Each structure stands twice: as C-alpha cells, then as structure tokens.
Amino acid sequence: MLAAWYYTGGRHPYGYLGLGEIFVFIFFGLVAVCGTTYVQVGAVTLPSLFAAVAIGALACAILVTNNLRDIATDIVAGKHTLETRLGDRGSRIFFVVLLAVTALAIIGVAASSGRWWSLSGLAFALPLARPTRALLAGATGLPLVQVLKMTGLAELVAAAGLLVGLAIPA
C-alpha cells in the first residue's frame, strides 16, 4: 500500500524521480510472482524468478507506454519520469528491450523447469506485433492508447501461457 501511495504521493513521489519502472518491476514482477511461489511451495525457484522477470518486464512496458504519451506535459509539470529522461526515441527503444527481456525470461522458465509448454507464454508477442510497429513508427494519441491496451492484453496472454505451461507435467 505504501509503495502505491508514494508512487505519486508524498513530498518526493518516486514515480516522478524516474524510479517508477524499478518499483513496478519489483512489486508487479518479483514480489507478486516469487511471493506467490514462496507461499505455495515454501521456496523461490529458478523458474519463478524467470517468470517474475517476464511479468515484471511486461508491467514496465505498460508503464512506459502510458508515460510515453505524457512526456511533453510531464516535462512542463516538472515530473522527471524515466521517459522524460530517456526522451521519446529512447522510451520507444526501451519498450522493445522490455519485450525482448520478456521473451528471454519465458525461454528461461521453460529451460529451467523442463516444462516446455511454458513456451506458450511467448504468444504474448502476437497481440503486440502491429502495435509495436506503430510505436516504433512514432505513434501518438489514439494509436498509442491502442499500444497501451494491447500491452495489457499481452501481459494477460504471457501469464496465461506460463500458467498453462507450468501446470502441464513435464
């Protein structure tokens, strides 16, 4: 709760210091996935660490897309998000890097668990093919909102693919 509050609240909101993606990665990736694994299994496993990286990277991609829309107004408002620091082009490249990290992490889940069906999590890329091309071509406004929407869907697809893949015995 405190992490959520201090993202935009308090005297020095960390979301406006360029630290939002770090906290999103930690709480929506590492804490959520590894914490759930620990509660259910009693340990944090290597596959759960890879899954946490995949889910955390996609959560960060959602934030990057959202903040990319606001770069100009955030600069005027004095908000120093990671995207205002990276700039428009750098933020778009960072988005693609996060997608690559997600794919590599899903491969890591399969390799470390021996449950090759977890590679079905790679289907996350399907809803992102066209929106990512638009993003790299400089999409703004409504097309960028579509990228945001499809990135959220991609996270759902990745999580579902990992869930199904890890549920099927090796």
TrEMBL record:
GO terms for biological process: menaquinone biosynthetic process; vitamin K biosynthetic process. It is a multi-pass membrane protein. The keyword Cell membrane does not apply. It holds the Pfam family UbiA. Coiled coil: none annotated. One of its GO terms (cellular component) is membrane. CDD domains: PT_UbiA_UBIAD1. It is an enzyme of class 2 (transferase). Its EC number is 2.5.1.74. Its main location: membrane. Keywords: Membrane, Transferase, Transmembrane, Transmembrane helix. It is found in: Membrane. This is 1,4-dihydroxy-2-naphthoate octaprenyltransferase.
